[in-house]
Amino acid sequence: MKKYLMALDQGTTSSRCIIFDDKGHPLVSAAKEFPQHFPTEGWVEHDAEEIWESQLYAARAALEKSGLSPTLIAGIGITNQRETTIVWERETGKPICPAIVWQCRRTAAVCERLVADGHGEMIRAKTGLAVDPYFSATKLQWILDHTEGARERAKRGELLFGTVDSFLIYRLTGGRVHATDPSNAARTMLYNIHTMEWDAELLSLFDIPREMLPAVRPSSGVFGESDPALLGAPIPIAGVAGDQQAALFGQCCFEAGSVKNTYGTGCFLLMNTGNRAVCSENGLLTTVGWQIGDQTTYVLEGSVFVCGAAIQWLRDGLGLLQSAAESEALAASVKDTGGVYFVPALTGLGTPYWDPYARGTIVGLSRGTTRAHLVRATLEAMALQTVDLLTAMQRDAELPIPALRVDGGASANDLLLQLQSDLSALPILRPACIETTALGAANLAGLAVGVFKDLEEICQNIAVERTFTPALAEEKRQHHLAGWHRAVERALRWAE
Ligand code: ADP
After folding, report:
1. CA of 207 to the centre of ligand 1 (A)
2. Buried b or exposed e, range 148-179, using 16+ CB within 10 angstroms
3. Could you tell me the distance, in angstroms and rounded to a whole number, from the CA of residue 409 to the centre of ligand 1?
4. Which of 40, 187, 315, 441 is most exposed, with minimal Cβ within 10 Å?
5. Band of the pLDDT at 294, cuts 50, 70, 90?
6. Crossing angle of helices 136-146 and 108-116, rounded to 10°
7. pTM above threshold 0.70
């Protein structure tokens, strides 16, 4: 009888809840935005209390909309903005200071010093991560350094650290469970992804008391039951994964070599590398996808900073478009870009170039260039940046990539996906349910509580809405990629 699953999708700007049935169909959803705080330039904070309240609101609203009794919900899956760092009191559950959000750059100088002091290699080898303010370790260190008495209180066991998943679990269980899963732990820069443990050397480097760290439990498994006062019945919290890993799971990328790309503001490409943690030679991160039982699935991750944001810039910065969706028809009104390339390095370039001094560059303009050509060049750039990530992954993992599964706001654009297929020479699969992040969390939970028997049953539930197949001759494709790389060359090191 208990066959519904509740996914809590705690994002950077809003908290959402989707209730799925046992066929993976979304029944209802609810969302609540919460405030972003920017205390000084480059700093980004959330109020963890506002995260909690908005998430609880969304869960209750979805439940009410569904008309379901909470006793019919078999399990809760949590997926969350990653790396965001929260410290709270064990006794009261109250945060002691603002949450430091993944985007916050306040520890940039600390990270530069770590690299200068020669810690970069050790950190990469153990955590799979590049030293960057993005990850939790330096944020947590900052909180302990800048909050009076915090480190001492943490040593006495009075303060707890967690990423957003951990904080939500703590609150949902009425303070009974302090835990996280390896996909979130792997983003803290304190967790050894090979031994699957908090790492003593890293804890000592960042001066983090071990007493404050959550227990790390498998991503699919019962973490605890929600306090019945919150949702009207005790519900097992049975699945936890960071947002990108949850999307990979939701896309059923269960085989080594399977890849998904999320086209949002930026884009995130993740490849399942099976039980092998592949060390990247091409600027990708190595991280944990999920842990089921004692089996760990690793992934390679690459990100592009500006993807859909380039369309936003055409719309808001240049006024070339009324809406993002209009980009498709306008770009389709010309047969090609007329030789124009746009490298949208508006905030530098990420994988595989890693050049913070790169800047946006448009090349190949002529008298005949129109806004349609420029819009088409922007869609092509979204696809070409993805090709660069795919190439890096293929080189590192030495795995053939059979197809690319896609999601995210801009994956609604058919022309973009056809260009992606042509330029990567891969079939592109767009699922019927584009809520892949929430679906992944629900599926992890469903697997733990027996709504699904195994991964195979989960796969039977997903449907491909449309497949885009390559239709560009290989010679033309290579010519195009060469043009793109010449354009990238001109964008690199510009601001230096
Ligand atoms: P995020 O979760 O990062 O906020 P979304 O997944 O909601 O992003 O996607 C929004 C982004 O996708 C925006 O940057 C927008 O410009 C872009 N976008 C949305 N629809 C389209 C479209 N039809 N064609 C191209 N880009 C689009």
Report:
1. 40
2. eebbebbeeebbbbbbbbbbbbbbbbebebbb
3. 4
4. 40
5. very high
6. 110
7. yes
